[in-house]
Amino acid sequence: MQTFSKRVSQKIEKLSPAQIQSLVKDLSEGNELFSAIFQSLSVGLIIVNKDWQLVEINKAAERYIPFSLHPDDVRAEDKKIWEIIDDADIASFLEKCDENDKTNVSDEYTLTTTGGSIRFVDVSVMPFVRNQELVGSIVTIDDVTEKRNQEILLHRMETLAGLTNLAASVAHEIKNPLGAISIHIQLMQKAIKKKRAGDGKLPDPKFAENYLDIVNQEIDRLNKIVVDFLMAVRPISAQLELVEPNALLERFVSFFRPEFTEKHISVVTSFCPNCPRLLVDQKLFRELIVNLAQNALAAITERFPDCATDKAFSSCGGRLTITTELKDEKYVLHFSDNGIGMDETTASHVFEPYFTTKANGTGLGLAMAYKIIKEFSGDITVQSQKGEGTEFMITLPVPQKDRRLLTYNGKK
Hints:
This protein is of the alpha+beta class. Helix content is 48%, strand content 21%.
C-alpha cells in the first residue's frame, strides 16, 4: 500500500478527475480495511508519538487496560499515556520506559476485573519506525491468563496428586473400623445398663463404663486426627498474582509488631532494594509469615521468660530479625529469632504433620507453611541450635519476565 501510494503521488497530476475519484475511493476502502483489522486484533495495541501521547488504540487494549480518562476524551489528547492509565504499576512501567529511553522490553502484570477475578497481562514496548525514522512507540498488551492458569494447575496437580490420593486412602481405611468400634461399644453400654437395671450383679460402674467412656473419647480423638489430616493435605486454593513482596512484609510486620513490643522483644527488618515482584497469594503469604512470627514469639518468651514483665524493658534480649535478598535470581527471605532453639532431631521433623513440641499445639502450622511455599514453587529450610535460636530460610523464584528485567537493568 505504501509503494502504491508513492507511485500514485508521482503521477497524480496526469490523472483525470474520474481516476482521482476512483483512487480516493480505493484508498478509503483500504484504510477502512486496515482499521477493521487493527480493531479486530485480540492483542491490545497502543500507538504513541515521541512525547508518549496517544495516537491510536484498539478495542482489545481498552478492554485489558483500565483508564482514568477514556482515550477518546478530548482531555486525554495532550496527556502522556501513563497519565490516563488507571493502574499504578503499568503506568510506572511506561513512564520509566520513557525516562530511560527503553524499548524492546516487557513485563507481566495482574489486573482485577470488575467481577473480582485476576487477569494476567503481558505489556511490551517496541519502537515505532516510519520511513526509517523513530516516530514513537508501540505498546502491546497480551492476555496470558489462560497460559498462567494452566501452569499453576499443572504444578498443583504434580505436587498434590500423590499426597491427596494417599490421604484419601488413609482416611477411608481408618474411618471404617472406627465407625464399627463406636457402634459396638454403644451396644455394650446399652447391654450393661439393661443388666444393671435387672439383677444388679454387674461390676461397679468404674470397672466397665468409665473405661468404655475413655475408649469413646479416644475414638473421637482419632476421628479428629483424621479430619485434621485431611485439612492438612487438602489442595490449596491459591489466587496467585504478581506483588511487591517487601511491601507485603512491611504490612505484615506492622500487624504483629505490637504483640512483640508489648513483651519488650525487638523486631528488626532489612529488605533488599528494588526487589522484583513475586507470584504469590497475598492471604496465604500473610498466613505463612504470621505463623512463623507466632512460633518465634513462643520460642523467644520461653528463653527469656522475664521479657513480658515491665522491668524487662531495658534488659530483655529477645529479638526477631527479618531480612530479604536476591541470590541466584531467587528471592530469599530470612526469618531469624534468638529463642530457645531446637536440637537437630526436632528441627528435622518440624514440617511433618502432627509433629509438635507444644503441649497445646496441633503440629499443623509448619506443615501448612511448607505446603504454601510449595504452592508458590519455592522452598523452605530451617537451621536451629538449642538455646541459641532458629532461622527459617524461604526461597521463592523470580518470574521469568522479572528475571529478564533484572538482567537488563544490571547491564544498563
